[in-house]
Amino acid sequence: MLHLGRDLTAQNQAKWQSYSCGEDQKIDVRYYKSDAGPTAQIRYQGLNISAPYSPELSDEDVSAFSNGELTWTVSNFVQTDFYQESDGFLARHEKVEGAGEEGIVDHLLVQDCMPTK
Questions:
Q1: Residue-range domains of the chain with CATH
Q2: Measured distance CA(96)–CA(107) in Å, rounded
């Protein structure tokens, strides 16, 4: 596993990070250690979800946290501290059916998110 998240605390001790995003939108995220490993709790326009780190959706460039319905993704530039990463975006995954086939469509809810100090 990546060395990301090695210094994460329990959820009740994790600090919130505010992000300023495109189109004057805001999102708050905190990163903590759970039984599932590194986890992100995301607050955005009334949503309040927790999503575990997703090795399947992450790579050397991005770290992704997904609960299957929503995915929060940030860059993987610093590689040791989620709180310092930028270029965040939140996507909703929706199942669609067309021409007899089922697929997944991603809808970007917020993008270009940079941490605020």
A1: 11-115 (2.40.128)
A2: 12
* Whether 83 contacts 74, CB under 8 Å: no
In this prediction, residue 1 carries a pLDDT of 42
pLDDT above 50 for 37: yes
Q: For residues 3 and 106, what is the distance between their CA atoms, to the nearest angstrom?
A: 28
- Phi, psi values for residue 32, rounded to 5°: -150, 170
Cα four-point dihedral sign 60, 90, 21, 44: negative
Proportion of the chain in helix, strand, coil states, percent, rounded to 5: 10, 55, 35
Q: Give the model confidence (pLDDT) of 97-111 as tens digits.
A: 776 667 888 899 999
